[in-house]
């Protein structure tokens, strides 16, 4: 295992770095595994101990391993502050799957193929709740005519509809040259990282956050740092500490019905965040894919409060599912132009077809009614979930559900390990533990919208059994 290729001409210490990172990426070395002592590694590699020390120092600085007094060198159990190696295998990074080294997710994918499993993991509405609309028939010639309405920023009629919606919902006047259509919110995020940051830069996100393990940050060489949250959202005092100590260049957050916790940032906290970002001249990226799924009035968007300080991301995927993979970025014209140029250079072109579908959906006369019916149905499922959750209330703290699609359950007793969560597999209940979003192992994200009445009953029976077993551990 600890052998180097004699054919490589790169420095030995760099070969050691690349090999150890490779072992971590392919799962040979797992989170928490202890590396051999420095002297042993030097013997295995047949090099001076100073070469091994140099390589380990680099791995520590890149966030792949940790050194603990009395425990030696161990593989980092989390992703905070992790960066890519000085010599990046870009081909591998761009082709790797989400969470490539996470055994838990491999088992999740297996179980999702089992029709008997209860899927509360997937981040989409069930098909029965997705709003319906009539899509007019198009000939190939008509689609080619629609293609002529496409600009480098996207399908112009869709841009115009988004401008109207932003004006109506956020009280902001924007023009089409401030809107870039993307193939979903993740592509939007990737473009922003490429244009606004350089390899080695640091980004602050919420802790926990769905961004925690996305490979787009690794591929851009960007370090992530988590900011503790409370009931009002991201803590501004903790964020300022990070800005001062980690040279944060960008703040990315999901302030309304946050993924995974479901928390909505208060208006007071939003104003504090904007004030802090202005103090340090830091842009904010606001991911608002859940804001339309609200049961009550939500605070103004960050974009509404600070139009030039905030970059706004939107998407239709949470309403219509991933089949309509359309998102957008709303920002000042100069940035949109740079993003558009980057999009063209990377050949991230978007077919006219999904854009026409998105435009048809948003302009359908029944869209507002269908969306209102959807929100009503979600509210009914949320209330039913909370009412029936009393059977497990002594074991789990349950977050409020004011909108969105997730509820967050936190274990109230002894510390849980990653292995403890495998009990859910035996019961064929598929959930998303908090270690997929953070270093924490004490909570889980549940997509309550996917539960029928029967499924809810089954879920709580199974969770009651699981909780009894966890308490005995």
Q: What's the average pLDDT?
A: 89
Tell me the CATH superfamily of the largest domain: Type I PLP-dependent aspartate aminotransferase-like (Major domain)
Q: Name the assembly state.
A: single chain
- Global outline: globular
Protein name: PLP-dependent aminotransferase family protein
GO molecular function: DNA binding; DNA-binding transcription factor activity; pyridoxal phosphate binding; transaminase activity
Pfam family, one: GntR
Keywords: Aminotransferase, DNA-binding, Pyridoxal phosphate, Transcription, Transcription regulation, Transferase
Give structural notes.
- The chain has 473 residues and is of the alpha/beta class.
- It has three domains: 12-95, Arc Repressor Mutant, subunit A; 117-129 and 369-472, Aspartate Aminotransferase, domain 1 (Alpha-Beta Complex), CATH 3.90.1150; 155-363, Aspartate Aminotransferase, domain 2.
- 41% of the residues lie in helices and 15% in strands.
- The chain has helices spanning 12-25, 38-45, 49-62, 90-95, 103-112, 140-147, 156-170, 185-196, 215-219, 236-246, 267-279, 302-305, 317-320, 333-345, 352-363, 367-388, 423-426, 453-472; strands at residues 65-68, 72-75, 118-119, 150-151, 154-155, 179-182, 202-207, 223-230, 233-234, 248-253, 284-287, 310-315, 327-330, 396-398, 406-411, 429-430, 432-433, 443-447.
